[in-house]
């Protein structure tokens, strides 16, 4: 494993990390979740990503349970949560969003479910148009000062919103966000590479990027339809199909071109796609998802590939995506 600093902070995260979305608490059972965390840990992964909304809190409960069961040393791993969507089935106004109240309540609930005394990373899962950004910055700062959160950040905020949070922190002498959690993959790169470009140097912003395989599309598993046991075929995940497969925008055909090229060059498409994410020096950690340990093992091979492959390969990959 390689470790990278979270932006200009002193925290070293594994270049590949592991997240719980869709899988923990819903798609997979506790036994598989345990195997996945154990495999990740054995390969040097030190960051496990979660959110209040994943399986309505159940993903955090399962992760907390298996981490405790595996007796991972608390000072050896980092765990995150995210606040915004809520974990209640039908959230009341105070059970979602980024108000001081919900940011605080959600932190306490995540600590309980994950069975930890503090969250290493705590994200605002989306911007909240109904709460002044300065209120959220104050709430995050309070949690940091109370020792309940070490680093806080955002997820899928615009560059302008991130700037506003930094400005509020500067004016009021509060802890500023350290990281952003954006989507980043071969099919979705504009925000990380262009919109955020000035923020890396200006604020020392780190990124923990998500969906390196575009929810599985870049493995080629959807090239010929939706397998029943894959994410897009799961009951309740129908809403994700148009986003992942695209609608008359050539997304599926670009993915097909990509997977054909990867096969032609002799690489597993998943491994190559993750290696591509790792090439970006502004990426602190690529958060992987997996529903089975063999997927995780294949994805972990991206570390070596990222070091081995030359520019000629990457030029061919990028040309195939146009
Ligand atoms: N901040 C946010 O808004 C946000 C949003 C999304 C995700 N995330 C975080 O990022 C993590 C990763 O995102 P993601 O799960 O979307 O990542 P992803 O890598 O794009 O998709 C992972 C899924 O692809 C399939 N897969 C993975 N490796 C494979 C392989 N080698 N061969 C075949 N299929 C493979 C598996 O699904 P199937 O086996 O079911 O097909 C797996 O669950 C999440 O767990 C979460 O922690 C954050």
From TrEMBL:
Pfam families in the record: Aldo_ket_red
Q: Which InterPro entries does this one have?
A: K_chnl_volt-dep_bsu_KCNAB-rel, NAD(P)_OxRdtase_dom_sf, NADP_OxRdtase_dom
Residues annotated as domain NADP-dependent oxidoreductase: 16-320
Keyword NADP recorded: yes
- What are this entry's molecular-function GO terms? oxidoreductase activity
The highest taxon in the source lineage is Bacteria
Sorted alphabetically, the keyword list is: Ion channel, Ion transport, NADP, Oxidoreductase, Transport
One BP annotation, GO = monoatomic ion transmembrane transport
- Family matches, as PANTHER family: HYPERKINETIC, ISOFORM M (PTHR43150:SF2)
The UniProt similarity line reads: Belongs to the shaker potassium channel beta subunit family.
> By what name is this protein known?
Voltage-dependent potassium channel beta subunit
- What is the species listed in this Swiss-Prot or TrEMBL entry? Aerolutibacter ruishenii
> Could you read off the lineage of the organism from its UniProt record?
Bacteria, Pseudomonadati, Pseudomonadota, Gammaproteobacteria, Lysobacterales
């Amino acid at each position: 494993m390689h470790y990278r600093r979270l932006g200009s902070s002193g925290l070293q995260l594994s270049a590949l990390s592991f997240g719980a979305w869709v899988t923990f608490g819903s798609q997979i059972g506790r036994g598989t979740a345990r195997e996945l965390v154990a495999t990740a840990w054995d390969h040097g992964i030190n960051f496990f990503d979660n959110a209040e909304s994943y399986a309505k809190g159940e993903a955090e409960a399962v992760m907390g349970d298996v981490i405790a069961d595996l007796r991972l040393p608390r000072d050896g791993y980092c765990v995150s949560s995210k606040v915004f969507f809520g974990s209640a089935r039908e959230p009341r106004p105070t059970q979602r969003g980024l108000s001081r109240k919900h940011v605080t309540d959600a932190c306490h609930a995540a600590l309980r479910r994950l069975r930890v005394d503090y969250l290493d990373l705590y994200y605002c899962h989306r911007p909240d148009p109904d709460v002044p950004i300065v209120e959220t910055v104050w709430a995050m700062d309070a949690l940091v000062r109370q020792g309940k959160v070490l680093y806080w950040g955002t997820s899928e905020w615009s560059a302008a919103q991130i700037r506003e949070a930094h400005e509020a922190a500067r004016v009021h002498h509060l802890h500023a966000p350290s990281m952003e959690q954006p989507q980043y993959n071969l099919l979705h790169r504009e925000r990380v590479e262009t919109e955020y470009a000035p923020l890396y140097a200006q604020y020392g912003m780190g990124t923990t990027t998500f969906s390196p395989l575009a929810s599985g599309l870049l493995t080629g598993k959807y090239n010929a339809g939706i397998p029943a046991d894959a994410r897009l075929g799961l009951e309740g995940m129908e809403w994700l199909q148009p986003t992942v497969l695209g609608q008359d925008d050539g997304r599926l055909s670009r993915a097909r071109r990509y997977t054909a090229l990867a096969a032609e060059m002799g690489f597993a498409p998943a491994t190559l796609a993750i290696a591509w994410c790792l090439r970006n020096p502004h990426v602190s950690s690529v958060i992987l998802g997996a529903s089975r340990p063999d997927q995780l093992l294949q994805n972990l091979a991206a570390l070596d590939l990222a070091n081995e492959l030359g520019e000629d390969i990457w030029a061919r990959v990028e040309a195939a995506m146009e």
